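Forwarding the complex inputs:
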Amino acid sequence: MNVYDIVFYLFAALTVISAFFVVTNRNIVYSAFFLLFTFFGVAGIYVLLGADFVAIVQLIVYVGGILILLLFGVMLTNKITNVEIKTGTINIYPAVIGVGLLTGSLLAALINTSWRSVPASAPQATTAALGTILLQEYALVFELLGIILLIALIGAASIARREA
Amino acid sequence: MMYDFFVDLFGNTTISGIISGFVMSLIPLFLFILPFALFAVYLERKVSAHMQDRLGPMRTGWHGWKQTIADILKLIQKEDIVAKDNDKLLFNIAPVLTFAGSYAAFAAIPFTSIFIGTEVDLGIFFIIAVTGLVVAGILMAGWASNNKYSLLGSMRSVAQIISYEIPTILVVLSLVMISGTMNLHTLSELQTGYVWNWYIFGGPGAELSKFLLIPSMFIGFLIIYISTLAEVNRTPFDIPEAESELVSGYHTEYSGMKFAMFFLAEYANMFAVSAIVVALFLGGYQSPIGYLGDLIGAKWMIPIEQFSWFTIKGVFFVFVQMWLRWTLPRLRVDQLMTTSWKYLIPIAFVNLIIIGLITLL
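Prediction (whole assembly, two chains):
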């Protein structure tokens, strides 16, 4: 057990436990806040895998953006108007079958793969290499993605501006 | 650097790695943030007092210098009140989360050339990302308090932080385009030499593009200073804790040490944003006039000098924040949003494009 392993198990435990609370908690605001810790744990695992840029983007996009938006929505409905949003359990049998199939296939893949383990090397900074790849090999895809995001933004703004 | 020194000190094992990690991460807290917060609270009182033609605290010690220490002792003794309708779990986590978020930023701030928490390649990007934790902590505090003032305050605060993050990121992006690095340590090293090598004066080098950059850099500096001011909820952007409307915003319900944690986070944030502005535009820990250590051949003095320069620059901008607080009136919510979305962001965008064109030269 070295430091790397200890940190990995800490982040893995954080991710799994908080993800468990996200789905089991009956209070939707609690679920949203536990999602924060799940995202944080995933970002930590990215760092351990040497994907520093992806980890930070994970924090900015999911914690700084999507989660805050989610919290805003949930909180405004939960405390300001007196609507109690509770999560309940419905359609339990189809869910059990679906989840069982998914778990089974994932486990089968996990067991049947012959894992190759490579001795860990010190992680390198990935940002410069990522930038080069994005703007050279995948320049067209990158620009197209940018345009799609721009369209989504303009669409959102025009929907929000429309007077009923 | 410093981490390796600690690993050697404790013997090279797993446990020593963990211990050195903890020691490294606690150094900025105990050697810097706590003394700084004590000093900054005192400074804030004195600055505000003198601006209003008062004297401020005068009774405890010479010119009241022991006043903040007495206040901390008072805060420690206060009862920890959790009201019946507060959400117990989130109410207790929120101050920790907020402080953790603002403290995490200190991991990437270079205090001297030999001390930086982590030499992470993404430096400034990391700082922007962990601010997200502060936002979540503030929302958590506002919601868990179960108090309309707290909830309104936290909503305002979060809306404001999110809006003003965009001009900050745009200015940071222009700096990254010029320097080609996001690491604050490398960025400070690039601005070595004398005052005209700082990025506010176009960065190192003496070619034509440096002089073309100067006006854009001044604009960028102003934008990032204004928007970071809004990100730490200081006047004129202090509607989240506007005393006359919202008691004290998201920490209305907090008492004792939990209140102290929010307070500490606020002062840590004030220094953190000043440090970011200093590291990006004003040479970081670099001296503007060369080092005494170089002059008399004492290399060991250089880090000490660098640390003093960094602190002086940082505390100067904290002082400017206090100065503005007692000079400018508070903005209304709509004015606040207008400032960000209709002025700062377009100007920052145009500035970014101009800087991009100049760097292509």
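Chain B has one domain: 78-360.
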